[in-house]
Queue: 2 jobs
Job 1
Amino acid sequence: MRMKVFVIAALAFVSLVSVIDGSEHEAQLSEFVNDALFSSVSSKQPSQPQPLMVPITVINGAAAKGAVCLDGTSPAYHFHPGSGSGANSWLIHLEGGGWCNTIRNCVFRKTTRRGSFKFMEKTLPFTGILSNKPEENPDFFNWNRVKIRYCDGASFAGDSQNEANQLQFRGQKIWLAAIEELMSKGMQKANQALLSGCSAGGLASIIHCDEFGSMFPKSTKVKCLSDAGFFLDAVDVSGGHTLRNMFGGVVTLQEVQKNLPKSCLNQLDPTSCFFPQNLIQHVQTPLFLLNAAYDAWQVQESLAPHSADPSGSWNDCKANHARCNSSQIQFFQDFRNQLLNDVKDFSKSSPTGLFINSCFAHCQSERQDTWFADDSPLINDMPVAIAVGDWFFDRKTIKAIDCAYPCDTTCHNLVFK
Ligand SMILES: *[C@@H]1O[C@H](CO)[C@@H](O)[C@H](O)[C@H]1NC(C)=O
């Protein structure tokens, strides 16, 4: 059996947990898990060609529009121009990286690349859906491709401030300033456009999908892809609501409700309207959900975080799915069933697309090994890149839902050491 395991160098993970005593440590730990999960370069890619490295661009005049990172510095993006048949096609990819939900962890975030331009890498590798090589990215390689950096801590959707702690919560303004600048750089003439994003950026691509669509004329083909953005309002291993509590903090602190769909807010509280399960029915623009059924971030941070399992009885299982016992696997199956139930109506609508594979993974569009490679994950023999391309170009209907764990032998499951 071909079982690929992708080991994440998270040596300090288990020992860190035992010394956590405050939200700053939680924030650091969370950042650490995020860094591990978002690393687009897997430790097991010896023979990959050198990825395209793309320099950062500061958004002109963003600060004058009040569009700033948590610490007041300018937001930024990485842009690689399209060519040939892709010269008028645009892919806008929103970076992910968790959220900040308290003054304390937002203040901490100002000292990281997720909260300040000062700490951002000034070049980034473009791999997977961002790759410029047709053999790595068959449908989007020659498009104009943009990765917008994430430095607001609320999925590009907050709009408030905290003066006492010199915090700016300007995600919505960053989103608008970035799109405005890209429009002026040629995106206004796009004949097709795809808004994508992973994790917190995948949630942002759902939140901003219709707004993105409305910026183009009707004749432009516009769609959205959410990768690992389907965060469930789920019960954790102690019966609590870890993620709902966290999202509640994000929404309240950053005043995210200002930018959530009114049609949702008429029915539900703002925190509920930050969850994709309650948002997707309000999205009119064609949307594709790419998600691992046992999303590695949600397993780590929503279902079995340290706070819900202080004795650490889930540590082995959450670090490596192969070490889970039968009741733990059942807990994950219930989580998958909740996910499938939440996307049931969505999948019936014809313009939507789905790729829900039964893997312990996170962010499968940005990593080359999961997007498109000789041994990349498959559902019905179809890799992620082909599923997304076929859906975008209306070549096929894609509603790919995998059989339950452990049936899929093509997964690139994340394992934490
Ligand atoms: C599985 O592991 C959990 C956590 O250690 C434990 O509480 C539970 O009793 C175990 N279940 C079985 C069936 O062994």
Note: The pocket of 2-acetamido-2-deoxy-beta-D-glucopyranose is lined by residues 313, 325-328 (CB under 6 Å).
Job 2
Amino acid sequence: MRIIDTHIHVGHKSEWTDRAQKVWMQTGPYIPLIYDDDQRQLPEQYGSVIKREGVFGGVLIPEYSPLTAGVMPIERAFEINTFHPELIPIANLNLNFHSDPASEFIRQMGLGARALKVHPIHGFFYANDKALYPIYDICQEKGLPVLFHAGTSLFEGAKMRYSDPYTFDDVINDFPNLKIVLCHGGRGFWYHIAEFLVKNFDNVYIDISGLPPANLLNYWPSMKKFAHKYLFGTDFPGVPGIGKNFDVLSGLIDSDEALGKIAFQNAYDLYGFWNEGLFGIEDKNEIFPVINDGSKRYKDVIPGDCYHEPYMPMGQLEGEMNRMSFYGYRKDLKVLGVTAREKVRDATLIRHAYVLNAEQGRGIGSKLLALIERQVDTEWLLVGTWKAADRAIRFYQKLGFKLMENKDELLRKYWDISDRQIETSCVLGKRLNYK
Ligand SMILES: [Zn+2]
């Protein structure tokens, strides 16, 4: 079953306050895997650890709460998103930290944030503060979800009155079309108020993060009946295990239909982040058909002895997948284009860039390429293609790549291909980082 984790925290470990590290982070097995020795987040590993748990998509939450949780800026979310484009950054505002919340909101949205979270209990302001109303207005108009930390917090200094449920109720009533998520569903002692709100307002949802999943039906007895109003989320990295939590939830919700809604469909529909866009792809059965359809354009273009069908057999693809990271472009869950990145010595290679024939000319290849470019930390990004593949060569040239004169040398150094393939291939390169 597909899982969306709607509640993932980001940030260097050192950006969290000591107290937050102690009471919350250490609960999870993830800490040794996602930070370096200087307590900085390792963006690629951070997301890989999450994806390994079977997560299809996720919501990355920054936070600006210097007096309680810490300041984990939105840039951390984008660092992770660069390698894991299906993990989507959202904005965060604190009325006591951002002197001009409206322009800060616009700044974060300009970076690419796609929803808003506020943490009143950590920032010492109220969710119904009128300073936030123009921002809620924008969110309502644009259909951007607003998430509230709705419940208690164990972080030192957190003040419970700022989590007063009636302040959330004000916003719910003042913005009848605003999509609102009550994170943690009233954790502590107002679960029944949160439950009342999701039962009575179409646009209000609960995310189940930061709670022991075995107890959820005690907190919200109508959860199964209202399965369309609950969202799976974990509070990563402060969670015993994403997969573990999901397994416990599966034991609790005995209907596959209800479980599918909570784990995936509700978040997919509410956020709308994953309907179309870039994804890391780890399923060979999704990659295989795209490569073998997209490569048909080489038929009758490249030398006959170089073309065969399937263009790439499954066994070869499996070998390639062990060495490189594959990315794809999805629409309505279907993969329409794929590419892969491989770092070889001091260069980064683009490998296997293919778009389904029926989907070519829609800009999918350029989007995949732009993603790979953001990931490159080597001086050169190189791509090899057939000398006769005029269309592919023009595509790369349009995006700033140049045909490399020393292509034989490069093909021998960075690729492992036959002399015949070297003879019939060319290399295009783009210098991205000057050393
Ligand atoms: Zn949280």
Note: The domain at 276-431 is CATH 3.40.630.30 (Aminopeptidase).
